[in-house]
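INTERNAL AUDIT FORM
Audit reference: QA-55
Scope: verify that the stored structure record matches its stored sequence.
Auditor: D.O.
Record contents follow.
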Amino acid sequence: MYKDMKKYSLILAALAILGAASVSCDKVGGTKSISVSAVISEEGIAEELPRPDSYDVTFTNTTTMQSVTVKSENGIAVATGIIPGIYNISAAGSAVEGSYSYYYAGSAQGVSLLKDNDNATVTVVASKESALILKEIYYTGCKVTKEVDGETTENNYFRDQFYEIYNNSPETVYVDGLCFAIQLFASYDYSIVYDFDIENKDNYVFTQNVWQIPGDGTKYPLKPGESIVLAQWATDHKAADLTAGQSPVDLSGAEFEFFIKAGPVWGATLTDGDAVNLERVSNAMGYPGIQYLTSTSGCNYLIFKPSQPVRTSDYIVPTNDTPTVNNYAIEILRSDIIDAVQAISGEDAVQNIGMPSSLDAGYIWCSNDYSGESISRKVKETLADGRVVYQDTNNTSNDFVLNSTPEIRRGGAKVPSWNTWIK
């Protein structure tokens, strides 16, 4: 009897040790880890399209910014060993049919995953590989140090912003009529998205300024591997009278510029460069201005070809704010959008991303305003003829990298033959 009791006690002790070890192994930093899942929904995707074999699903804790990526099996991705919290979940997959690639992307934001077996649904949408892509974006601006009357001054310089668009396809594409815009938000930190009382509002993204490349449809061909540069101001920003070489870019060879009018502005005199002037076809902001710039903290950038006339008057007004001229808006059909890139201000802005996941399921940020940094696409492959094909999965987190300095036509992108003014 005593031996049996002793044996029983030893068994209980062993079980207790194993239990303690199990609990310890289940803890991360003193917090019990959990196992959760994401269910991939392909609802709404046309039956005739190919389907990915699996999805890469990323769970990102919005507090710690720690991420884990797992592959789905039979439409379910299981993440183990994560700590309870609020998560952003993104899913990406691809499939090939014939000569075309299809990319599937979706996200779920601010999901509470607090206990074992919690789950979330991520609805993905399909997109055909875009011919035109935003290849590199330099929006941060730079710092410029000058000596004035024996004193050193440091100023912020932002007139050297540019947006490079690349033909990622094997066919010639005409950029005539292509439009550029940024998504409109109701607050500077992007935490509030305007609500508009219009029919089928979920079919649209909203903006204020729309800039369009002129042409009759056959004037500006872009061959495979060529790119165009849209410059805020198409001049040499390294010039002595501007930054004395402290700007990282010379934009005098840009194809297009956001020119409004010449004249003095904030310590410089804007001039009309050799680049073709973009047409500001819509200006819901109502501010005439002398120049156009986007936020040095990042924006949601859009390129599209409108299937319906761009609204140039009778602008729409949001329902959740006092109507003023700065809140008027223009709607863009999501189906018209060719490419979208979401650049946020930093880690703290992850919870405020507002781009529809069908357009961009991810995001990126630079280290700071006026850091002189840019973002550019990752190379997918280099073909035998030397043409570079860039990654385009409709997920900026996967597709883009941060650069310490911008580079015009990085990776050997070619200049279109009709640009006769580039040096």
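Auditor finding: record pair retrieved intact. Confidence is low (pLDDT under 50) at residues 1-26.
Action required: none
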